[in-house]
């Protein structure tokens, strides 16, 4: 299969390329920076230097690659700028969908998140609403407007090259005692599990899938385990700030139903292996 991977130089993209190539796919992978092209080539992809906000350039790049499927792994979090990432979800996705459709591509697989659901008391399945008007909802609706769309709602990523690896953004905050333990609930996903799920999703039916581990948990449960693995001080247990959502976690039953099984079924065993 010919695949156009938008976001080939990102945290997931760099790990995804070798897995796609190993599975027999031909991959064209994008980067905004010409200096990254050689690295993408070394990983096994045909590098494409293009900016997702350059609609004409993006359309030309997708047309030249002539893919069977587009995989959307674009994010903009290198500067921890959530506004920039929201813009990418709205405007970047719109450009990518338009480019794909102009090239006659009928299917897109897209990275989303598993913590955007409306509040609730139990882990969310894929039928729970994502608030209308949010950047995540806009992104997903754009993808679902195509003939075939698959949304992978990843849990909070941990593992190598993520914010949770030793020396990463979250790890440094925990080591500094600046990350309190509240009752806020998180569903985690090891980066190796989301990469495996993304490759497998090429054969899944259209629709949304939560790619999370088996154990949504409040920070009062997972954070002490994580801190201990880092050799960091035990976190301070505190109430959530007023107005901060508790979250609810997500269920992975649908993804398991199509054959996906996490390598790291719980953060309890995944954290110590980082």
Task: Describe the structure in brief.
This protein is of the alpha/beta class and 274 residues long. It has helices at residues 11-22, 37-43, 55-65, 82-102, 135-144, 169-175, 191-200, 219-230, 253-257, 267-270, and strands spanning 2-6, 26-31, 46-49, 69-72, 107-113, 148-154, 156-158, 185-186, 188-190, 207-211, 217-218. The protein has a seven-stranded parallel β-sheet, with helices on both faces. A two-stranded parallel ribbon has the order 7-9. Strands 8-11 form a two-stranded antiparallel ribbon.
Structure description:
This protein is α/β, with parallel strands linked by helices and 274 residues long. It has a single domain (2-157, 190-212, 250-263), classed as NAD(P)-binding Rossmann-like Domain (Rossmann fold, 3-Layer(aba) Sandwich), CATH 3.40.50.720. The chain has helices at 11-22, 37-43, 55-65, 82-102, 135-144, 169-175, 191-200, 219-230, 253-257, 267-270; strands at residues 2-6, 26-31, 46-49, 69-72, 107-113, 148-154, 156-158, 185-186, 188-190, 207-211, 217-218. The strands form 3 sheets. A 7-stranded parallel β-sheet has the order 3-2-1-4-5-6-10, sandwiched between helices. Strands 7-9 form a two-stranded parallel sheet. Helix 1 (11-22) packs across helix 7 and helix 4 packs parallel to helix 5. Residues 236-264 are annotated as: Disordered. Residues 3-211 form the NAD-dependent epimerase/dehydratase domain. GO terms for molecular function: aldehyde dehydrogenase (NAD+) activity.
